[in-house]
Amino acid sequence: MEVVILSGKEEAGALAADAIEALFRAKPDGVLGLATGSSPLPIYDELARRHQEQGLSFTRAQGFALDEYVGLVSGHPQSYREVLRREFTERVDIDPDRVHAPDGTATDIGQACAAYEAAIKAAGGVDVQILGIGTDGHIGFNEPVSSLASRTRIKTLTEQTRQDNARFFDAAEEVPHHVVTQGLGTIMEARHILLIATGAQKAGAVQALVEGPVSALCPASVLQLHPHVTVLIDSASAGQLKLTEYYRHTWANKPHWQGL
Ligand SMILES: N[C@@H]1[C@@H](O)[C@H](O)[C@@H](COP(=O)(O)O)O[C@@H]1O
C-alpha cells in the first residue's frame, strides 16, 4: 500500500488523473471503476479538463459504478447512475452505453447482482478502481462487518452513513435504507485501486484502513491484502496516522520515473 500525503484534493485529483490517463494511453479499451461521493469529484474535474484541453479520449473505455441506492426511481438526481452521468460521462467522450451501474430498481435484485458481476467479468475486470471511504470505513457501500469476500449484493445502510449522505438529499428521511454494492471480494479483483480521502472527518477511517488490523469492522482495511493500492490523502485526513514521516519520506524519495 502506497500512502501519499498531498497538499489537498486538487493535487490528489491530478495524481489520480495521471494514473488514469496512463491507463487509457496504454490501453484505450481499459476499464475504469467509478466511485461517487464528493471525494472523487476532483478526479472527474481533472479528467474532463484533460479531455477538453488535451484530447484525452475515453471512446473505447468502459466504466463500472461501485454501487447504487435501492428504491430511487430511474433518473432520480441522487441515483448514482445520474450522479456519474453529470460528473463524468457527460463531460468526456465515453459512450454512455459503456458506463454501467448496479440496478437498484430491479424486481429480482439477486439476479441483477449476478448479472452485474458477470458484466464486469465479461469486460475483462476493472483496470483502475477509484474509491472514496466512508467515515465508518466503508468502501462502495460495504458497511462494517461486511464479509471480506463479499460479492455484489444488497446491503442495509448504517444510520451514520445515511446521515453522512443526507446532505445530497432534500430531507434526511429521503436517504434510502438499502443499496446494491460491489462486494469487497469484487473490489479486490481490480488491478489497481486509487483511494482518495480528504478532511479531518476521514482521519479515523484512514488510520484504520492503513494501519489498523485487517478487520470487517473497518471494511476498507481489506485493501491491505491487495498488491497495488494507492491512498491519496491530505494532511487533515492523515491526522491520526502513526507513520506519517515514513510516508512523506517514501514519497519524496520515490524514483521520478515510477508511476503510481
Ligand atoms: N457509497 C459512497 C462511497 O463510495 C463514498 O466513498 C462515501 C464517502 O463519500 P464522500 O466522498 O462524499 O465523503 O459515500 C458513499 O457512501
Automatic annotation (TrEMBL):
Residues spanning the signal sequence: none
Hydrolase in keyword set: yes
Activity regulation (record text): Allosterically activated by N-acetylglucosamine 6-phosphate (GlcNAc6P).
Annotated Glucosamine/galactosamine-6-phosphate isomerase domain residues: 12-224
Record's keyword terms, sorted: Allosteric enzyme, Carbohydrate metabolism, Hydrolase
Residue numbers marked as site, Part of the allosteric site: 146, 153, 155-156
InterPro entries: Glc/Gal-6P_isomerase, Glucosamine6P_isomerase, Glucosamine6P_isomerase_CS, NagB/RpiA_transferase-like
A single GO molecular function term of this UniProt record: identical protein binding
PROSITE patterns recorded: GLC_GALNAC_ISOMERASE
Catalytic activity: alpha-D-glucosamine 6-phosphate + H2O = beta-D-fructose 6-phosphate + NH4(+)
Pathways per UniProt: Amino-sugar metabolism; N-acetylneuraminate degradation; D-fructose 6-phosphate from N-acetylneuraminate: step 5/5
GO CC annotation, single: cytoplasm
EC number: 3.5.99.6
GO terms under biological process: carbohydrate metabolic process; glucosamine catabolic process; N-acetylglucosamine catabolic process; N-acetylneuraminate catabolic process
Keyword Oxidoreductase: no
Pfam families: Glucosamine_iso
Transmembrane segment boundaries: none
Physiological role: Catalyzes the reversible isomerization-deamination of glucosamine 6-phosphate (GlcN6P) to form fructose 6-phosphate (Fru6P) and ammonium ion.
Annotated NCBIfam families: nagB, PRK00443.1-4
Protein name: Glucosamine-6-phosphate deaminase
Biological source species: Psychromicrobium silvestre
